[in-house]
């Protein structure tokens, strides 16, 4: 029973697929909206900047980033989530302000030093090899580029100190974390901020 529940949870939220994934996407769009808005606000992309959105899910934060940036690129391993994000960001895609690509934190498919900002909401726990993912994000960010990661504290399998150290070992500077509560049923989140030395 517990194993079936975990499989259903993974199909809805971890690695969204099928009809359960579509339902999970609708739930994520509602529950993560405040977090997505806050992360994009903290990242503060400008009309001259390119933003990489890791795991955009149903596209709420991707749309917000695309409305503020020169371009927002959403990279997600789930075809269900790419489809939902594509529907949500349709006008921005037509305008050339949003792109969607299959990929993940360890394999973004982006050229070296090609983006100004990387944002990630509630998917760090799915990165697999975090050290490799941090190195990949450092690789694709331009000098002076910034990283904003938010993750539910309960989903984090390491200490905030170790998370900061992993980012520093990948070459990020001024790495810091903060704790945020968004209210309602949304669990408290840890937010990691860092930048690439100029």
Based on the model shown, name its key terms.
198 residues, alpha/beta, seven-stranded mixed beta sheet, 8 helices, 25% strand
Secondary structure: elements and pairs:
Blueprint: H1 2-14, H2 18-31, H3 33-43, E1 50-54, H4 60-68, E2 71-76, H5 79-88, H6 90-94, E3 98-102, E4 115-121, H7 130-140, E5 141-152, H8 160-169, E6 173-180, E7 189-195
Parallel strand pairs: 1-2, 1-4, 2-3, 4-5
Antiparallel strand pairs: 5-7, 6-7
Helix pairs in contact: 1-2, 3-4
Outline of the structure:
By secondary structure, the protein is an alpha/beta fold.
Count of DSSP H/I helices = 8
Q: Helix and strand string, N-terminal first?
A: HHHEHEHHEEHEHEE
Largest sheet: 7 strands, mixed
Low-pLDDT residue intervals, each spanning 5 or more residues: 4-17
Radius of gyration from CA coordinates = 16 Å
Distance between the termini: 52 Å
- What class, by secondary structure content? alpha/beta
Number of strands: 7
Strand order of the largest sheet: 3-2-1-4-5-7-6
Judging from the principal axes of the Cα atoms, what is the shape?
Answer: globular
Detailed description of the structure:
- With 198 residues, the protein is α/β, with parallel strands linked by helices.
- It contains 8 helices and 7 strands.
- It has a 7-stranded mixed beta sheet with strand order 3-2-1-4-5-7-6, sandwiched between helices.
- A hairpin with an 8-residue loop joins strand 6 and strand 7.
- The chain is globular and about 40 Å long.
